[in-house]
Amino acid sequence: MKQKSKLRKASVGSRVFDFFNYGFMIVFCITILYPLWNLVLLSFSTATDSQRLGIHIWIDTWILDAYRYVFSQSMIINAYMNSIFRAAGATILMVITSSLGAYPLSKKE
Description:
mainly alpha
């Protein structure tokens, strides 16, 4: 006994929509991911390579000089501590205010 397929053929409109939807998503992902990739490349490149303009997909020389310089400074610890305290303080404040606002909404009259 043959079973009927539960999947229907996609209409032409659905296929056109899928084509443009995939194309838009690919372009959107590239516009989001390329600047991040470029930032990573610049952080590992030499000063002369980073001053060149243009589209960089890969760099010739990978170096860690920028990271060594940043982490050799003692002020980086202060910056991290400021970020941690601000994030923790904001989280605690938001939990308290959300709880104070949610409690009256959860009670029936």
